[in-house]
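#struct-help
A.M.: can someone run this one for me? Single chain, 632 residues.
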Amino acid sequence: MGGREYGERNAGSVKAAIDVYGEKINLGHNPALEKRQMNSSEGSSSRAKELLLAKKDIDRCEDSRRTADSVKARAETELLEAKKTVKHLKSLIEESNSKAKLKTQDFEKLRRPARREGKSSIAGNSKRYRYEDVMRELDFVKRELSKLKLDVASVLEEKSRAEKEAEASNPKTGSYSGSVETLRKEIEEVNEEQMLVELARIEALKELNGIEAQRKKEASEYMAAMEETRRKITEVNEEIESARDIEATLAVTLSDVEVLQVGLSLARDMEKRKGNNTAAEDESEASPSLRSVMEELERAKKELASINEEGFQFMASMDVIRRELRHVIEETMTLKKNEEKVDMTVQNLNSKLLRAKSRLEAVSLAEEKANSTVLNLSATLEQLRTESEAAKKEKGLIEEETAKIKAEIEKTESGIDLTEEKLRAAMQELEEAKTSEALALEKLGALIERTVRDRASASQHSSHITISKFEYDYLIGRATGAEEIANKKVAAAQAWIEALKASEKEILMKSGIANREVWEMRVHEEQQVFRTERSLSAKKKVGGELKGRRMPGDVNSETEYLPLAVSRKSPRKVAGEKSYPSPARRVRVRKSGSPATRQTGRSASITLKRRKDVTPDISSFFSGKKIENQVQ
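D.P.: on it. Structure tokens below:
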């Protein structure tokens, strides 16, 4: 009875410990527990989805940041090119102004000797050609100014888009930090549950030690009781043997008493048959023997009575011994049953301890994985913080640069306005020069006709034509000037070819850098995908182990559930086995959803196209070909 009470008490304490541990094994159906487990699994899956979305948003933010950096770099390069073009246009405008001044001076020189003989017709034609060249240069400058304005507008648009993307990435980083904080709280809850598991394991070990000590004590007490019962059984057997001996002696004495009674009855019959006379003598002679026989008979009766009493006592003692033997047998049966129950409880406790150990090992592995995920998440959080700080700094620098660029753009626009005013003034001067030139040409035409007539009349008389010294010097100077202009054009063409080669080299370098950036983006994307899958597999494995720990059922179902969950959720190996996926799995580069990338590609193609459009104008300018005058 004491062993039974102790077993029930131990079973109750173990149940209480298991209730504290939160892993009570229940083979029945518990809908509330299943509902809680379903809610926990749904919560873990939703957290995993949120983590995956956060990783995707982080990748998008990084892509947008990269695109913003590329847009910034392209904008800076385009701004530098715009500055160069502005400087080039300023130099061209200065050259055109200087040429216009020289042409006006030449025109003034030509106007002075216009009254002479018709010697200035060639100068008029050259002046017309120079005027056409100046107009072509002015048209070219106007086109370059319009292109420069378009480039500046596209640069400003790209800058504004980059600023908007940087502002949009700030709330995303805040949301990511909030999700990381929630994950930290969940990991702290898992650590608290592990502490409870450790406490329950310590209590279970203490109870196991107590149960084993109590079992040893009960075994020793049972062995002592068995020895006592065996000793009592031997004593009872000895008493039974002695009782059997006494019964045998009693049977012998009873047979002797019966013989004596038969002899006594025979003697009494013989006495009745004898006569009266002989009776007295016979009585006197047989009286001593009869007395002795009667005494022996009395003694035998007393012994028989005593033997009967002892037999009754032995029978009573035998009944008592039989009752004690039955009681001892019942106690031995109860002790055996209690021992079997204790063995069953010990086996159950051993199985429960094995289950608890396996669960504890699983929880320890889950904790290690959770710690690794916490470290990874903390590292990513720190990286995100540093990136957010760097983004803020870059945003400030970009704002400063945009302010500087705006100031430079305003300066360039003011310079462009000034140059336009100068060009308008030059155009007015050229118009005035054109009108005066038209008048001079009319006069020169009249003079030329007159001189042609005079020379024709003079050539009829002689084979030589006489010209003035001014015409001779002018023709010689024109030839030397044409030669110098041709040399300059050849040098400019060679410089333009060198610039084209340098631009081709620059384009090749940019394409190599772009290919390298694409490769780095692919490698970074593969690393991000691997990290997200590894964190998701670790998170889902932790959720599955927690779910398996709370699920009712035996260890077999739990051990079957864990590998199934691992095989279903993470087809790759565990991150601790040093098995990394090959980067050739994902070849396709992810396209960003932001319009900045599309706009940057389009703007780059536009700038290249514009440069190609600029090339023939400059080449035609240096080659000296005739271009139609497009001045309205």
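A.M.: thanks! Residues 1-37, 114-124, 552-632 have pLDDT under 50 and may be disordered.
D.P.: also worth noting: The first helix runs from residue 2 to 21.
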